[in-house]
Model the fold of this input.
Amino acid sequence: MPRACAPDEPLLQSSTSSSPGKDSAAFDVVDAGQSKATRKLAAGLSQRGLVALSGVADREAVARFARRIMEIQRQRYDGPDGLTSIREPTQPGRRSADRVTDRGVALHTAGSILMCPPRLLLLTCLRAPTQGGHIRLVDGQRLYLDMAKRCPAAAVAFASASAGFFGSSCGVTAPAFGRRADGRVSVRLPLDGLICWAPEAEQHVPALQDALVRNTVEVKLQAGQGLLVDNYRWATGRSPSIGPQRLIRALGFPRDDLPMSFLPASSPQGGAV
Done:
């Protein structure tokens, strides 16, 4: 089993974005260079859908690890190794004589405009910014259960097969909470501006936004650390930052079988699953 995070390790200690320093939680961590890392990763992903990583100190180490655990899905801005390097702001920022400001990235699931989004997201840090730059995370299981409890009608609306059109000129009509025949639920959340909600779902967008805020946790990655995320369960984003930073990202599909996202404890109608 992956070892539990120690309180003094920055990566392992997370807090809610609404109450920094409170409601902290520890993530499991795996040394990516260990010979038994693959088995530990499979256990962590199956149980929680997210594993924290150490031992990813440079791009070559990240590439080796990514190839070992996933079939890499190449993106538009990937390098020859299939990895995306995030050096500068992904949204327009501000540069002065002594700092670079990154406005951050909104919470979303990667590839939400695709018919079949990548299953795994690997995000590693090679250089941490001076300030900010926390990775924001929302567990889809907690999000779904929160909405099912507080606003059942919203959970039902966002589970509709026609809940929204994800994309701009091209994309896909899909639910935000996709439910399979076996009861498992997957999450699909868009980047800002890349969604057109159906009227039945649009009226519940404020409830969705409130639930995202309630369930967001933040993790500060240091150089050599990373996160391996089940993209069908977790939404990710990044807080604004100051100072040069370098992140490496890989997207793809697991080489080994992985249970499809999560089983909710109860349905929006209140019945057991």
